[in-house]
Amino acid sequence: MASYNRLAALIGKYQELAIFRRFQTLNVKTLLYMQAELLHLESELKSIELDDESSKDIHRASLHTSVFNLKESSGSDHQLQWNKAMEIRDKLERYTLPRPFIMTIDKALVLFSQVQALPAPSIRDLRTFQEWLDRPDGGDFFLRGREAEMWEDEGDVLTLSRHQANKDTVTGFVNDVVVPWYHDLRCRWDKVWRPSDFTAAS
Question: At CA 113, angle to CA 120 and CA 110, rounded to 5?
Fold first, then answer.
């Protein structure tokens, strides 16, 4: 029976079919949201810092010169700056993998750049993969709903295949354009002219 188990077995056996979505737009949007959140928190912290520095209260005024005093302010009437600093720290550390895998915005940017550097699959491999999903002896249309659209956006897919990553431009052109074109031409020619038909006619 077609299932994700069969699909995983196929990808495990044929590395060139390790094709996945990049989710470029979602990744960029997530980074933008993280950046915007931190920007607002930074602005709030600066405002609190200015209020503390200009305060006539000697304890509040000393917070910007001593991290010890700032930390000791927790639980007091002057804890606002420390609490905001801890909120920012939490935001920086909390995106978004379960602990102990902590994802900061810096790590998210690095990971995003690494994902972007992964190559796109060859046209032939992508077509083979898509056709397998539809074949009765393959995926047999087991994907339903939104999941059936997973590999439709061909401009947003990547491959983990080392073969594709190491392929030069000329080899890529031959494999992805010339070979499929030749096979398509051969199939069309075979349909039009068959040796058996010629023999029978003569």
Answer: 145
116, amino acid identity: Q
- DSSP string of 163-198? HHHT--HHHHHIIIIIHHHHHHHHHHHHHH--HHHH
For the four alpha carbons of 7, 12, 15 and 19, in that order, the dihedral sign comes to positive
Comparing CA positions, the residue from 61, 57, 165 lying closest to residue 121 is: 165
**Structural tokens at position 19:** 């094709």
Measure the CA–CA gap between 141 and 56, rounded to whole angstroms.
Answer: 72
Q: How far apart are CA 66 and CA 43, in angstroms?
A: 21
Residue 71: what pLDDT? 86
Alpha-helical regions (H) of the chain: 4-13, 24-53, 58-61, 67-72, 80-94, 105-117, 123-134, 162-165, 169-173, 179-192, 195-201
Quick: pLDDT tens for 59-97. Answer: 888 887 888 888 888 878 778 888 999 999 888 876 544
